[in-house]
């Protein structure tokens, strides 16, 4: 799981119906290890009680900037100074206006003005309020000062209206928090292309040759690279996973489409990490109409090789190349052969016969082999941890 230990986050909550989602956000950030200080406007306390935040964060939630009983004398200064990130979710039109005009008249706008930490704002309001020229001008002012926005999204609002104004859901907010905290990380300035998921090779308009890949390993690599500040392009085959926030996602179907998308994405890239399960063979002649059973005793499918993406990419501008090998036998020998044949810097080999590693599960146990033939066997860990350690190695290759 993604780790926010050592991170101090100030969560500002303002007076919108969407405030009901804020305790869940505070809880998820706390579960990820962050120390979360909640500050609320007085209007926000009409929607959610401070005690709810205290319950989920284990820390006092503040709303009164004149609180003489507070153990901290200049609360806003202390919170502002120790924050790694300030998130305002939900942010009302009023609060956005205060931020744009530098007003500091409640604990949320006061802390936002006092902090030098990055500011992430998640607006929530009626579509007409969002589209209003005043709100749009305030948002443009804040963007020009480097404030990041997540959402608002289109959909059904509490009023029953449809339009743009819904606050983003908590998983999206968490992605935006990770993206914001990752800026300036140790892969800043690097463009990393990641492939994920399985490809589907058409037999006819409704049938395909596919595989068991869930896409989890490649998505974990993309998220970990984003969390370290990289610019990430994710070329994804079949998967049920949603687009990771802040990642440029290209969805493809077949090996040929994946080849085209990966080659295009590699322009200007520093590393390519191919975690996708690309078909080795595709039906030689896909049929234009659905194949009928009637009148057939058997059906023979002729397969032809798919493009060899890693070999075709070559090594433009010293591109670092990492491949994955899913093997059910002769793991080491097959992985070493793949390093040679595809010109890789690293290969991450997993034994797909184990039930706690490989396809679909959240954990993996891998063997990592470099181009000199040096091997490391990593213990069972989450795919995110595997991804993080692969990126440690990629970073060392950049430095070399
Ligand atoms: C039931 C109710 C729901 C509201 N929802 C929103 C909202 O989603 N977005 C918004 O910008 N204002 C909303 N408002 C108006 C704000 O609460 C109001 O502008 C308030 O002054 C905002 O103050 P604050 O930014 O200090 O919290 C709502 C008001 C009420 C009574």
List keywords for this structure.
14 helices, 2 domains, Rossmann fold, binds flavin mononucleotide, 22 strands, alpha/beta, six-stranded parallel beta sheet
Main sheet summary: 8 strands, mixed
Total domains, how many? Answer: 2
The CATH topology of the largest domain is Rossmann fold
Instruction: Compute the number of strand runs.
Output: 22
Tell me the name of the CATH class of the largest domain.
Answer: Alpha Beta
Poorly predicted runs are: none
With strands numbered from the N-terminus, the spatial order across the biggest sheet is: 13-12-9-14-17-18-20-21
Any guess at the CATH architecture of the largest domain? 3-Layer(aba) Sandwich
Count of individual helical segments: 14
Terminal CA distance reads 29 Å
Whole-number radius of gyration? 25 Å
Percent helix:
25-40%
Bound molecules: flavin mononucleotide
Content-based structural category: alpha/beta
Mean pLDDT: 92
Tell me, briefly, the overall form.
Answer: elongated
Which superfamily, in CATH terms, is the homologous superfamily of the largest domain? Answer: CoaB-like
What does it look like?
The chain has two domains: 8-182, Rossmann fold (3-Layer(aba) Sandwich); 191-399, Rossmann fold, CATH 3.40.50.10300. Helices cover 33% and strands 23% of the residues. The protein contains 14 helices and 22 strands. It has helices at residues 22-31, 44-47, 50-57, 75-82, 93-100, 107-114, 127-131, 133-144, 170-182, 216-227, 255-265, 309-313, 331-342, 383-399; strands at residues 8-13, 35-40, 61-62, 85-91, 119-123, 148-149, 153-156, 162-166, 191-196, 201-202, 208-209, 231-236, 248-251, 271-274, 281-283, 303-305, 320-327, 346-351, 363-364, 366-370, 375-377, 381-382. It has an eight-stranded mixed sheet, with helices on both faces. The site of flavin mononucleotide has 16 residues, from helix 5.
């Amino acid at each position: 799981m993604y780790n926010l230990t050592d991170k101090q986050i100030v969560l500002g909550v303002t007076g919108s119906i969407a405030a009901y989602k804020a305790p869940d956000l505070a809880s998820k950030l706390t579960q990820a290890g962050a120390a979360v200080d909640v500050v609320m406007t007085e209007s926000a306390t009409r929607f959610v009680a401070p005690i709810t935040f205290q319950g989920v964060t284990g820390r006092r939630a503040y709303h009164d900037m004149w609180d003489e009983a507070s153990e901290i004398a200049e609360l806003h200064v202390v919170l502002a100074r120790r924050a790694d990130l300030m998130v305002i979710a939900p942010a009302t039109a009023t609060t956005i206006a205060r931020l744009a005009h530098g007003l500091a008249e409640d604990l949320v706008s006061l802390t936002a003005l006092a902090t030098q930490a990055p500011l992430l704002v998640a607006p929530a309001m009626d579509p007409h309020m969002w589209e209003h020229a005043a709100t749009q001008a305030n948002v443009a002012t804040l963007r020009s000062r480097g404030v990041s926005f997540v959402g608002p999204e289109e959909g059904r609002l509490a009023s029953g209206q449809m339009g743009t104004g819904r606050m983003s859901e908590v998983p999206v907010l968490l992605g935006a928090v990770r993206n914001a905290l990752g800026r300036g990380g140790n892969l800043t300035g690097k463009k990393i292309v990641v492939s994920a998921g399985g490809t589907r090779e058409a037999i006819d308009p409704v049938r395909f040759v596919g595989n068991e890949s869930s896409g989890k390993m490649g998505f974990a690599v993309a998220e970990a690279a984003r969390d370290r500040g990289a610019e990430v392009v994710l070329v994804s085959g079949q998967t049920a996973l949603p687009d990771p926030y802040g990642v440029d996602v290209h969805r493809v179907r077949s090996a040929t489409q994946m080849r085209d998308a990966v080659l295009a994405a590699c322009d200007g890239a520093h590393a390519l990490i191919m975690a996708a399960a690309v078909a080795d063979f595709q039906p030689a002649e896909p049929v234009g109409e659905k194949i009928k059973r009637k009148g057939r005793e058997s059906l023979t499918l002729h397969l032809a090789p798919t493009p060899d993406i890693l070999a075709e990419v070559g090594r433009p501008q010293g591109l670092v190349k990492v491949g994955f090998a899913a093997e059910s036998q002769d793991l080491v020998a097959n992985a070493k052969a793949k390093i040679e044949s595809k010109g890789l810097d690293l290969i991450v080999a997993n034994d797909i016969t184990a039930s706690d590693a490989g396809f679909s599960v959240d954990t993996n146990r891998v063997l990592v082999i470099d181009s000199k033939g040096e091997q490391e066997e990593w213990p069972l860990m989450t795919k995110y941890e595997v991804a993080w350690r692969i990126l440690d190695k990629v970073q060392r290759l950049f430095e070399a």
